[in-house]
Protein 1
Amino acid sequence: MDIIKEFFKYCSKSLDAQPVDGWDIYLSEDKSRQIACREYEVEDYKESVELGYSIRVMKDHKISFAYGNDLSIAAVTRKIKEVVALNALSLKDDSLVMPQSIVEATQSIGIDDSYDSVPVKEKEETLRKLEKIIREADNRITNVEHLGFSESCGTLYYQVKGSELKQQSSSFYGFEGEVIAEADGQMESGGGFSYQTRLAQIDIPKLAGEIVENTTSMLGSSAINSGECKVVFRNDVSAMFLSTFASLFSADQVHNNKSVLKDRIGEQIASSKFNLEDDGSIEDTIGYYLFDGEGVSGQRTELINDGVLAGYLYDLKTAKKDGVNPTGNAVRGSYDSMPSIKPTNLIVKAGESSLDELLNKDRVLLVTNVMGMHTSNTINGEFSVGATGILYENGKIVQSVKQITIAGDFLKLLSSVEELGSDTDNFPYNGNIITPSWYIESLMISGL
Amino acid sequence: MDGLAPETVSKLLDTLISKNGDYSDIYYQDEDLFTFTIENNKVKHLKSGTEQGINLRYIKGDKTFSSSSSDLSPESLYQIALEIPSSGNHIEIPSKKIYLPAETNVYDQISLKDREQLITNFIASSEKLKKRSNKIMQVTMRYLNSLKNVVTFTSEGETFADSRRYSRYIIQIVAKDGNVVQTAYEGPGVTGDEDVLSRFDMDEVIESVYARSLLMLKAEPAPTGKMPVILMGEAGGTMVHEACGHSLEADFIYKGTSNFNNKIGQKVASELVTVVDDATVPGEYGSYSYDDEGVAAKKTVLIEDGILKGYMTDRLSAKLLDLELTGNGRRESFRSKPVPRMSNTFIEDRNMLAEEIVDTVQNGVLVKKMGGGQVNITNGDFVFEISEGYKIENGEIGNPIRGASLIGNGLDVLNNIELVGNDKVFMPGICGKYDHVPVSDAQPTMKIAGLTIGGS
């Protein structure tokens, strides 16, 4: 787009004329579409185009930040004046680092252009197909509350002082559903989703099956007695836990005394079966970065090796402090956010056992959903969350369970992971989490 | 706003009307934000920014078609209006309506000099606080001043504008003793002319967070099981917002997914319970003059003496359910469509004193400060964390408890409220139903006959 090139030309020239030591300009351009269907008709249709930018400047070991979405010369001129003025109020810190360059690399795989190439009517038709499969699968499904399709395509543009303008593109497609099931006077809601970088990767019949199963399985549910229990976290629940506690691995949280993982590199913090890594270099995944919000390439970083804490996630500043290389985890959520350390693709190494094998114990609770995960203590790892699930004895379903809480400590939880499933899937929480189900030897459950 | 010329508004609305809908509107919104965080006595996340955008929509029956854009040029807006799918035959009715320019920009953003002074003051308070105890590991202080202008132009030819100022600060302390780490937090917020720092003295707020952080270090694991629970007035109204309010939003009623469906006129709560949503309470964090689709804010009684009286509506749900407009059509920004959302939601005061209520419990839990929570709208099941709670043993308030949560069901709780006090306190918050809107909630001290406590 010419208007974007013009903006960068004007903005970079103006910033070069300012009395500053360094600067960067980040701009994102996105288009997105969301379609919601109910009773086979489009209920909500939404399109949006969005373009916004942010500028950082560095002077005398201070970095300031300002954002805007008006690309007119007058507005950009005001914004530059504002960000330079704010610099005086900013933190002076010798450890602050401004990127000097952007990694020399290009995307080898093009993004999926189904946004434009697949007609909207066809996407609406897929939603109807999803609804039909769900409704016909089980007559206890009494209401399809929400069926949605969303897609977006975007390009990030980035330039730092002294560098060329670089860009990277991404695409994102997803279907989701929430339905109501009723039987014997009990009403339960449930749902499911699949988000991928390519439209064709979404398996509609499989998703429909998950939505139906997640909902109908909760009919007839009740609480169980309090006590220690063997537990399996289904892969989506494992992903929710990992996404909630991922910040423990952020070097910034560690430096700020906001992580129990401080000073524990080389220590056994998890079961020896547990391996965790972050990998932003895998193209065609939701967590892929050609370069992060500071121009560093997406890459693989070991976090837990056979249960031993192997490393943290770094941006430029924290890497300099610890004398290590940055790991490409300076993520910008959108143009109005400063880069901060976030996972890209957070990956738990899969085990050998199928979910059925994990559940083949004398008595084990399969946790299928948790509520209130965001109330967890992301500094010390403590959690106490509401849960629903299914109780198994010797591989057979005994009852579905609700109105219980599970409570504990994230590191103790990782240490009690006795087996990992082979049922790896990806969940777009806090970047992208790729994990199988986890079998946990013992967890405290509060119920009746 | 200097964005939309009246002729652009007319032309855009004509285009929307031609798509054969029942109602159309244009929503303009801008924001000027200044915020900073002080962490370990240092300024971090100093952030300043502006954004603006437009949302175009039309409604047909229960269906909504919309498009949003951050590009305000008339050509680009006209283009996205044309691209919105039609709902039937093209209709051509030149509106000939004259849209009045909107009065906005009532508030000015803080000057550079005042920003500097604020940061200096915050750093001084943070330094003082950090020195008070070697158990304090981390002090985080955040300040936010957001100015928002919203304008709605309707297909009926009306223009409604609202200029809003949100000011808020947050104090968070992480305290550590041995292996025990505890977090305490307080975040007062106001809207309108008054500044948050003049209404809520920072020294007093700091004192309360400081005391709680040290107290919670001595907390014991919570008892578990079902027991009487006292929610103090100062705990705020998270429970009424989450476990009751959401189920009274009319979009859930229309979809038939609320547990309050078809219950108007029925007894749904203890007769001591009156639940109100009121966006006109002066200065509270959920207050406004017009909602985000141009409907005047008002006070709505939802439950009166235990009887269900009404729901909170937006234009769409009010029309579909033939209900009154209550001015609850809210959205975070031009990016989304409005949906029924709460504003300031509370349980009305009754006559008892908090101490009298506390005296009635022999064994149970007293909650002085609620944390976050989550609710399942369909069946009303909820879970909330307790940030500050105490055991009540043999009629005495005992040790603080940690890692505890409340789990239960909204309707059950409403019916199990045995006593209601006279000391409600509004607490600001951010509601995340679809997107994020500022809200507040309140309740007086209440006794709930039995509620499950989950512990660690």
Note: The mean pLDDT of chain B is 92.
Protein 2
Amino acid sequence: MHDSADKLAPAAARPESREATRQNSAGPGRWQRWQDSDLLHSFLRSKLVVLAAIVTVLLVGAAFLAPVIAPHNPYDLKSLSLLDSNLPPMWEAGGEPSYPLGTDDQGRDILSTILYGTRASILIGICSVLFAVVIGLSAGLWAGYAGGRVDALIMRIADVQLTFPAILTALLIDGVAIAIFKNYNLDAAKFGILVVAIGLSFWVQYARTVRGVTLVERNKEYVQAARLIGIGAGKIMFQHILPNVLSPVLVIATINLALAIITEATLSFLGVGLPATEPSLGTMIQIGNRYLFSGSWWMVAFPGLTLAVLALSVNLLGDWLRDALNPKLR
Amino acid sequence: MLAFTIRRLFEAAIVMLTVALLAFVLFRFVGDPINQMVGQDTSLEDRLRLREELGLNDPVPVQFARFVASAARFDFGISYQMKQPVTAIISERAPATIELALVAALFAVSLGIPMGVYTGIHRESWLSKLFLSVSLIGVSLPTFLIGIFLIYVFAVKLGVLPSFGRGEVVRLGFWNTGLLTASGLKALILPAITLGLFQMTLVTRLVRAEMLEVLRTDYIKFARARGLTLRAINFGHALKNTLVPVITVIGLQLGAVIAFAIITETVFQWPGMGLMFIQAVQNADIPVMAAYLLLVAFLFVLINFLVDLIYVRVDPRIRIYGRGV
């Protein structure tokens, strides 16, 4: 397999062969450069950021290895038993070692459900941020490059949307989707609806940032030169201007990831997100909230803690990235 | 100033019309309004007659004009779910949300400004670090988690405060207030803290940042050189000059308070507009959703407009700039 990939590579890479050789020649020096870079230096300087990174990697890793490391499968209805429901964590009286963090009202193991639920939350977060980036990038590039009426229209829409908080926009899109698909089986489509709803409520920030950079880059000589030799507008936008906007977009995306995860959890908690059968951190907290008064604190405490820690560490990473990539603060 | 006001008013009108168009599309084309209103055994003739009576056969622009006209008179039709006029439902629910939002804002400002001033002046003290850590957590934690945590501590464990509802309310004309009874006030505490915490952290951080900036300026150094007391410098000179951006942000945050009220009201089963909206979303109750959308948009546009005007009035630098242009 390795051989065939090698054979295919030159043919596939021919159009960008110059690009490829440049990257190859930079190969050995690149690791060295990374080690010397400000980015790594500022990363290691702050213990809090390192801790946040470790926690994030652990949580994401555990979530995506859920099918392997989870002691039970919350999707497997056969393995559930109502006799095991409402068990406290193993260190409390009445707890069982096979359910380390206790069970919920249907006898699902809390630990396993958290692992699967975190996976769902992170997946929706990443997908919706990607969706927002794609829309925001395209709209911003187009508005900045085309200017004139296109620019005015896109930025007006962005202004109107910016007057509303993102959570409200997400709720509205979600509500409309529920109304449209009222008569269909929604559960399967819920993932997509959530991604679209959260993604559409976050695109404005990217569009504004990208437009700002594009307005500056558009008039630089290299873009004028590219236009003169007859390169199409699309290629100029995506191949020449796009690389200039990637670092601010990356920063916003990291901070938005935490927000997107919280938004998903909030929507699910409000009962308009993922269905109750689909474990996510939000739905778990929603279910646990109903049993708060019966003393079953573990049903809401552990997923709540996971959500808080996840959001906090991703936020810290985003803050660090923003400061590290901001040349003004160096 | 007049030209500025007129331009802003014009922009506000366009925003409102756009939102009205959205609400209209929602109302008219998401599901058939007739099917939502009548039962299954209504005959076809009755349906057609109702369709004609409601004017659903008219050209779409005419329908839109009629929709805008009735919305301007606060007539949003009948709720599909509750079979009552939407306006009646909203006017019954609005006082609960407005009281909650105002108390939360008061909480945020009355705690946030002193904390911001303190952390701005005593940068290195452990109390400042504590305040800042708390505010970082306040920004990162989702609202509903804070609400659940407060309920668990104060309602479940300590049993001192109620966890849901508004308590007893007193009717003052058209306004139901919970501020005049002991149970109403007790019921207000936890939701107001939950709702106000995020704004409080925001105010703290903003005041701190502004204080740090202002304290570096020459006129503060000069005030020190004149031998003014620390209190006069910090509060009379520094804090006063931080307040313009703070007022703006607080004004703009009123909108966010309304949005987060949806979550807080759900956690505490607070009978306000946010809970009404969530129930409308869950039941696809389009008239209520459309009305809420228009109402919130109106509030936002109004707040933005007022903040713009106040800003120009308060900050002379903007006024001079505006006159020059």
Note: The two ends of chain B are 11 Å apart (CA to CA).
Protein 3
Amino acid sequence: MFRSILIIFGRLLKSSKKNNSRVFWPFILLLTLTVLSFNEGQFQKNQNSAENNLSSILYITPGGGDESQGPNFFVPPNTPTGSGNGSLDKDSFTNSEPINERPKLLWGVDPSYRAPIGGGGSGNDVGSSGKDNTEEKYKIPDQSEWISDNSIWDSVQETDSSVLEQKEDKAPDKLKVDIDFPYQYDSNQNPTLLIPNTGRLREKRPYTNVEYDQTAAHMHHASDFDIKLTLDFNMAKYERLDRAGRLDYVNQKLPQETVINYQNAIGQSMCPLFNIPGKTTSVPGFAGKHKIGTELSIQQSPNGINMLSIILEDGTHISSFSITNDQLKRIINNDFWVLRDRNL
Amino acid sequence: MIKKHFNLLRYKELLQLEESGKISFLDLELVTYKASISEQIHYNRKKDYFLLIHEYLSRVITPYKFRSKFLQMRREDSAKATIILENFQKLEVFTLAKDLEKFSDLISQISTLCLEFGEVWDGTMERMSESEFYSLVNNHYLQLQEAFPFGNFRNQAYEYLVDRSFKILMFTIGLNILLILLNIYIINIQ
């Protein structure tokens, strides 16, 4: 359009110069005025669009959760199940040590499994009365009695793998994403991650519970943990919603894997990791207008970013987000008092 | 403006103490040294912060845009500070404003409000209302204005509006005159 206007002006100028010289200079003036105004408008428009593009990059990033990750972590069978309302029975964890490693073998799902040779039977096989019988049963035979028929071993292997396949199919506790912590399902069949507590209350409560719903209600801090949200996730709309509305919105717009990845990232920000040299510590603090006792977990990454996590004394994780050094200074100066303007 | 130099010698000592495990990374003196760099960077662009807060309070920008822009500016400053903290040559000549503390404290309070605005918890802590947020930001802004009297942004905003309106008007009038002349020219040719 701008080009066509210029062409028309050019033709007009050419003809006006030939026919009437009095019209020539006012034409030049008008042309300059119009071109200047037009360019100004274009510049403003470009600036605004650049700003919009930037904000879209900052708050809505493309791509969803990584669904290509296979199942790879299982809740140990000894881990207690949910009490029905999403909360966890803390005392029941004292007797079971959740495994913080990925099982390498398929039979890792069954800790009661014992090799029949050498070490005796499992707890189920060995009763108090049948101990001698079992020892006799699994006694290593003399070398003269050894059988060199390989087909026996083939049949044993077949039996074992079929049993394991059955176990894998029946395993109800598989998650679709790779996580680093033990977990437990809440009443909505969403996982609550159990993060080992490194703070002063670790004797009293060994785990911090990072609940699915509480995490889903804090997607506005997801960018701090490099969690990618879907393109149609409107953060401005999400922020205006109350807690229940936020949960509905997350269920509509985000796959469960995204929230679980976010839970996992929060968990990592609360415990020292060997592969990422960061400084992690847990300190007693306060939260809310009424100064409720809390535990604050602070992690400083090698690139100078501080992650603050707020945990209630009963082990419920409230929120995690990044803070700058001057905010950290202010928190230390205020005796680790956070959410000061909130009615917690 | 009175300035003071960054005490690099003491900062190095504190870093060594931290490395040897004698002090924690949460040691107040060490954190204060680290924070002073980002505070100075905030201070250097205080006009931008004032303008952004003023735009929000004048309802020129939405609350969401204000919060996200404010936090983004803070993150940018913090990233710059991290780079400077690793460069001892720059730290050696780095100067700090004397009234830095007051400014950074108020700005930090607004930043904390932005961060904590969306915090909710299981029914007992609902999201902060927009009016409450507005009122708290306004309180801090008044304190900022009192401590750091700055240009009247109300006039600046109006000036900007008038300037833009004038340019649009000029463009429209210019285009109309040209169209009239074009029409006259076509009539003359015919």
Note: Residues 24-59 of chain A form the longest helix (36 residues).
Protein 4
Amino acid sequence: MTEGSTLDSSAEPAAPGVRLEAASLAYKGRPLFENLNLELPAGRITCLLGPSGVGKSSLLRLIAGLAEGARCRVRDTEDRAIAGRFAYMAQQDLLLPWCSALGNVTLGSRLRGEPRGRDLEARARRMLTRVGLAGHEADRPSGLSGGMRQRVALARTLMEQRPIVLMDEPFSALDAITRYEIQELAATLLAGRTVLLVTHDPLEALRLGHRVQVMSGRPARLDVPLEPPGPPPRDPADPAVLALQAELLKRLARARQAQ
Amino acid sequence: MRLLRPLIVFLVLVAAWQGFVQVSGVAAFILPGPDKVGIALLTHWRALLGHGAITLAEIVLGLVLGSALGVASALTIAWFRPARQWLMPILVVSQAIPVFAIAPILVLWLGYGMISKVAMATLIIYFPVTAAFLDGLRRTEPGWLDLARAMGGSRLSVLRHIRIPAGLPALTSGVRVATAVAPIGAVVGEWVGSSAGLGHFMLQKNARMEIDLMFAALLVLALIAVTLYFAVDWALRRALPWQADGEATAD
């Protein structure tokens, strides 16, 4: 067990902060956002909320370098590019149906042509154990439930050992209880990394985020960040969380009107 | 019951055939009854087997060659994007010319032996395989490609680990279609000019009005085609178990 708990954090460099500067992106001739700035504090989880269509996902894809026709500058706090130092997790689990859970978790190293040692497999097995999937290593995605599949996707993201993690509504397709459990798991496993989590669930943002920001309008702007007290994952019954949830819902309602 | 059903269908069809021949009194040189065809099958099984083996060999060789060429072309076109504009017109033209029209030329060039028939089958198989696999290679789930990009995979490794396996189900449906049409290529080749094979045998028997033997040859050909199709289908399902599951539920 000690082996399992020391397994990733020790091997990784301290997570840098990330700055997105002067981001501009147009969709069908209309600007989604112009000259937008966003800062992801080092080693913290930043949650981004907003009405659908406001460009949250586009902003995340822009940071990941996956958006076409965008203008922006993405730098870490030491003014270096972040390519190759982030992992990406999407709303769909994006598991390869022909690979076992183990094969999916080790996809990154296969794609990079890294040696397929026993170490890699052992690490992948430990990672699957940590997300609660021990015994399912050989299962194909079609044999797993939605929650289990997303756990595999989480394990695959963590296997990348990247200091920055970009997550695009990763848990939104799950039912409430499954989502609650996986949030708990994610908060623990993502501790110490610089995370951008796009979500449409205010409670999820308040449970997981060190910093919560609402994106609204067109071209979109970001409001003043909320910073819920205490370390994540927070108890949803915590009065502070509940008070902030009311505040956040108000902001989201306003954001929707501005849409 | 599942195994019995095709047998019952077969028996009913044979009975209907026999009944029709009996009632209508149609001449045996126009439509022989199943009894006559059965006798022809039994008395000439050696010749039928010999010719059948040759036709089967032509079909299988054509299938292997055509599929290999199709896979290679699809991969080339998918890898070198400009190749598509250059090669697609050739592919389409190769399909626009009816096989019947080129069969005599192939026989002229490649002779009366098996090679011209294998070439014919290859030609007819090549296009469905290429088109299907290329389609599969070009329709990779965009999310997988985003993920691969974030993971830092090279173009070659993305092709190898994601695009090719993702394209395999499309390839297998291409190969299924190819398997169904492959006998056409071989038999057309045999009709145009050959010294052996079921097509050759049928043409000879037709000329001599030995229609019962012609029907017997037709039965053997149908048996070969159906067996081959199911064998290929079974093998493809075995090869891609993750895809067969999905198909079963969609049914």
Note: Chain B touches chain A through 24 residues (CB under 8 Å).
